[in-house]
Amino acid sequence: MDNLDQLRSDLLTRIIEADLDQLEELRVEALGRKGSISELMRGLGALPADQRREAGQALNALKNEIGAAIDARHGVFAGAGLEQRLATETIDVTLPPRPRGEGRIHPISQTIEEMVAIFCEMGFRVAEGPHIEDDFHNFTALNIPPEHPARQDHDTFYLTETEDGARPVLRTHTSPVQIRTMQAVEPPIRIVVPGRTFRADHDATHSPMFHQIEGLVVDETTHMGHLKGCLIEFCRTFFGVDDLPVRFRPSFFPFTEPSAEVDIGCSRDGGGLKIGGDDWLEILGCGMIHPRVLENCGIDSTRYQGFAFGMGIERAAMLKYGIPDLRTFYDSDLRWLRHYGFNPLAQPTIAGGLTP
Amino acid sequence: MKFTLSWLKEHLETDRSLDEICATLSMIGLEVEGVEDKAKALAPFVVGYVTGVRQHPNADRLKLCTVDMGSGTFEVVCGAPNARAGIKGVYAPEGSWIPGSEMKLKKSKIRGVESCGMLCSERELELSDEHDGIIELTEDAEIGAPVAELLGASDPVIEIGLTPNRPDCAGVRGIARDLAAAGMGILKPLDASPVQGAFESPIKWRIDLPEDLADGCPMVVGRSFRGVTNGPSPKWLWDQLTAIGLRPISALVDITNYVTFGLARPLHVFDADKVAGDLVMRPAKPGEKVPALDGETYELTPDMIAIADDNGAQSIAGVMGGEATGCGDGTTNVFLEIALFDPVRTATTGRKLDVMSDARYRFERGVDPTSALWGAEVAARLILDLCGGEASELTIAGAEPDWARRQTLRKSRIAALGGVELPSDEPAQILELLGFDNNDDGEIIDAAIPPWRPDIDGEADLVEEVLRIHGYDNIPVVPMDRDAVVPHPALDAGQNRAGRVRRALAANGLVEAVTFSFLSDSDAKLFGGVPDSLRIGNPISADLDVMRPSVLPNLAAAAGRNGARGAGDAALFEIGPQYADATPDGQALVAAGLRVGGYQDRHWSAPARDVDAFDAKADALVALAAAGAPGANLRITRDAPAWYHPGRSGVMWLGKTEIARFGELHPDITAHYDLRGPVAAFEVFLDVVPPARSGRGPARPLLEVSPLQPVERDFAFVVDADTASDAVLRAARGADKKLITGVKLFDIFEGESLGEGKKSLAIAVTLQPTDATLTDAEIDAVAEKITAAVAKATGGVLRG
After folding, report:
1. Pairing of strands A189-198, A125-126
2. What is the pLDDT of residue A51?
3. pLDDT > 70 fraction of chain A, expressed in percent and rounded
4. What does the alpha-carbon distance between residue A185 and residue A175 come to, in Å, rounded to a whole number?
5. pLDDT (tens digit, 9 = 90+) per residue, B204-249?
């Protein structure tokens, strides 16, 4: 066994000193078919049976140890070679990467989603309707008879007269969807209606197309206290101001009775307009549904009641996000869209927050 | 509607402050839009006595005035020619805000001499445009006293935004009545007792209207005056009218305005000597012209009512009086008109003639039907007071319409609708103060609607009257009750789909735009045009005169604008409507987008690349995938509409439904919109994407994965050059539906070696064994099936 120890220490010493070529020679010399350890193993057969076993175990251990030592030494060379190779593969990491197009979500879409998220929490569903409306749904059913001054105030766009003498209109508000919903669905009803609306008016603060969101609740018990609760909650959540002052002022709309306009607290100090403060800013119109509107939709006004509201989406977005000019919403100026638009993954949710 | 505080106090006994009154007005539905309180603006300014004047040492045209302002004496540099010792002027101390020059007065040196404050001109105080000299106050002005009252500017002007349902508040008295009801004071009585007529009016009224116009003027009252003296109005009347922005003309005309604005009772005065014969309400004759008081001449039509004498139409009923018979300084004999005109007819006439007047404003909202009679008395008293002379008896045509109406109010409705419990007697008290005569039996109020409230219509209206006076602020806030603990989703499948497509396209590098639903007819024609039913009858401009047949043109125009701004290559999309006709079904929701010019700009890593049809196809597929369309079953044809490049565009079909289009825009279109480079556009029709299969619940089928290695084999087929690659891929995939799980096209080659009109398509086919590793023989068998299937479908042969 002494010569085995000698062989072991001799081989290990040479392995540690070997270069890559010598290492391969050593592997052949020790472990190759005619290598020293292989030779010794072949010699086992000549030993008496009682020694064979012990010697075999020792030889196997030596074989494994030498193999591992060679592998380890190989590893050292491989590591060094890799390092060398990697050193030649260095790049300028300050180079700009391959460009990827970056899209944005339009503020109107984002704002609608924010509003819907809030109203969803209060049990509203989203309803939609056609942009080209008939006189009945846009006016008459909403208690705006022909020649009513309110009809003139709407600056209505009219389409070509049809063969039966009717003149379709571009809906002047989202309110016709109230009518279509009430005609189609039995109460209780809770809907919000975001969408395009049209008025023949174009100046610094008016666009011939803009967006509104309409709300409608019909059941047997909803009263003005609920109307206040719903809209105060909405305003505070939408603008993210917990103690935002909100007031309800009597007003007039043909389709609600009683009617109110809603103001929120604001501040005009220092030129700019800020949400929250002692001054007032009108934000939306609302009221209890006029009994005649319910009847026009075939709903029994002695049993059912409810409220409706309507608000401008661009205006709310302008106030919340500090966008100064209404007309820029439709100009599709990329500089504007990239500046005021939203990250596509920043979807407003109640859980994740409404404001990116 | 504008009025002064003192005018309000002619009708309202009150000691409430301006602020209290304004706050109350807004909270009872008469929204205050502005308060101009000159007294507040003039508060810092006091009477200053110029005790001495000496020449400025460094400037010929400047003087140094010593001003005593009571609490001290200051030296002021002044350039006014009328600055002299002994006069009393308006002294602005240092630190006061000068409204006319919009600056805060600071102590400063003028040409080396310090000036402590200043003496003001009328322009500096925004009293007038006068700036030739400083204001000179009367000698009896008390030194150091505030100047506001001395300058006649102590009367605040309030402007309210009047809702169309409140004709009564188009007069100061109606506003006073509402304020009285809201506890702001007591409504003073109005003296409308009859004025004794001294003679019979030489001019008589006649109503001569056909049946279809008869409701246009149910009643008219007239009264003659003789021996009057017309001239400038007294100062109080002059001040009231100028304060609200009216131009005083002469006492007679000013009285009509005073009654119009004070009592919402429009009047007109004729110079009786210019009227020929009697006056008659009659339909206008076709083409009849009236030179009106505003200096314009209006041409009337027979659906309008003219007020005519023997010489023809003199006045436009309800809208404006005529120039020819108007009152002037020389007028001594007057005929007063107090008429009732129908709101709708007045509005129609005014709109047709495009003229707004203070009379039209009130008539089209509805004047008090009893005012024809009391108006004649109130106006007569004013004319006699201010112009002297004597009044005739009344001349009347027609009759007061029956205006009496009643409305009941169940008191329980106030809580049921308004959500607030009121003390039992409060509703009746409020209604009484608003002028309703009512009986309250404890449960139900039976109210007589006053003649000045044509807007009251139904029980809910009375609830509103009670609530707005009680105060909306006093309605307790109640949260919305929930119909479920966790809210149900707000969006339906289609709305969700549009939302996902929006975010998918934006995540894919496209910027969302929102463009108008309309465009110009000429642009629409480039995109297939629109039927006549989609023409706007009253467009705001010729650029926006039809509804859009496609979303693309407005996006292309937007891209063109961005290009012109040098904003670089645009990548825009919009999810919005296109219109096929004017019916609800004619409106379709489309996700459309386009990329212009370079897909990738010059970059160190790769050469620049222009967009092409495959970018558009990729975008369309992104949208379809987000919409949940089954992508594998799409069929593509080459028949895209004319706005696409005929050779570089396609239509995607799902069964027989056209679901999307994509391709390069036609060069004529890109040229029209000044778009540089190719434009890759797509349109995805979201409404026709079939809904995801429902009824299976949220659980997915069990995932089955094979433990066996898939095998990939490459084939190259030589086919005719015009063969659609899709046909080869479909044939290969269909050769063994069980074993073949993927087919990829990885190379296209055309060259002389293949022969004229041929191309080679190289595909990689993935085979996924399920039971056992494939043997060479099995693989060869599948390869043969693939070769046969491709040959059968396309005539393609394996490339040798």
Report:
1. parallel
2. 82
3. 98
4. 16
5. 999 999 999 999 999 999 999 999 999 999 989 988 998 898 888 9
**How far does CA B367 lie from the centroid of its chain?**
27
- Is the Cβ–Cβ distance between B68 and B91 less than 8 Å? no
Q: What is the pLDDT of residues B58-92, one digit of tens each?
A: 888 888 888 888 888 888 888 888 888 888 888 98
H-type alpha helices, B571-724? 613-627, 667-672
Contact A288 B510 (CB under 8 A): no
Q: What percent of chain B has pLDDT over 70?
A: 99
* CA distance linking residue A53 with residue A40, whole number of Å: 13
Model confidence pLDDT, tens digit, residues A218-257: 999 999 999 999 999 999 999 999 999 999 999 999 999 9
**Residue B105: strand, helix, or coil:** coil
The residues, ordered by sequence, that sit 6+ positions from A118 with a Cβ below 8 Å of its Cβ are A233, A234, A237, A238, A350, A354
Q: Distance (Å, rounded) from C-alpha B421 to C-alpha B758?
A: 89
Written as one letter, the residue type at B196 is Q
- How many degrees, rounded to 5, is the angle at CA B516 between CA B510 and CA B521? 115
Please compute the mean of the pLDDT values over residues A104-129 and round it to a whole number.
96
Looking at the complex, report in whole angstroms how far the Cα of residue A150 sits from the nearest Cα belonging to chain B.
7
How far from chain centre, in Å, is Cα A241?
Answer: 22
Secondary structure (DSSP) of B250-300: -HHHHHHHHHHHHHS---EEEEGGG--S-EEEEEPPTT-EEEBTTS-EEE-
Structure tokens at A104: 């944005």
Tens of pLDDT, residue by residue over B34-47, are 998 877 778 888 89
Query: Average pLDDT, stretch A270-298?
Result: 91
> Do residue A334 and residue B499 have CB atoms under 8 angstroms apart?
no
The order of strands in the sheet holding B390-398 is: B268-271, B334-340, B219-226, B390-398
Q: Which residue has the tokens 């895209």?
A: B640
> Which pLDDT value is given to residue B694?
64
Backbone angles phi, psi at B93, to 5 degrees: -70, 160
Across the interface, of B478, B509, B573, the residue whose CB is closest to A226 is B478
What is the model's pLDDT at position B501? 97
With 70 as the cut, is the pLDDT of residue A154 above it? no
Does B430 have pLDDT greater than 90?
A: yes
| pLDDT (tens digit per residue) in B488-516 | 889 988 899 999 999 999 999 999 999 99
CA of A306 to nearest chain B CA: how many angstroms apart? 8
Contact B659, B624 (CB under 8 A): yes
Residues 6+ apart with CB under 8 A from B634: B624, B652, B653, B654, B659
Q: A105 vs B502: CB contact, 8 Å cut-off?
A: yes
Q: Are A300 and A294 contacting, i.e. CB atoms less than 8 angstroms apart?
A: yes
* Sign of the torsion angle spanned by Cα atoms B716, B717, B721, B722: negative
CA gap B602, B608 in Å, rounded: 5
B593 to A113, B623, B676, B760: CA distances (angstroms): 21, 10, 16, 33
CA B313 to chain centre: 37
Which string of b and e fits B730-742 if b means at least 16 CB within 10 Å?
Answer: bbbbebbeebbee
**Which 3 state secondary structure label does DSSP give B78?**
strand
Please give the residue of chain B at the shortest CA–CA distance from A130. Answer: B584
ipTM for the assembly:
0.85
Q: Any idea which residue has 């506890």 for tokens?
A: B183
Contact B507 A201 (CB under 8 A): no
Contacts of A41 (CB under 8 A, 6+ apart): A56, A59, A63
How confident is residue B121, by pLDDT bands cut at 50, 70 and 90? confident
| CB nearest A338 (choices: B477, B504, B511) | B511
3-class secondary structure, A125: strand
Residues A285 and A253: beta-carbon distance below 8 Å = yes
Q: Quick one: tokens of A88?
A: 């030649």
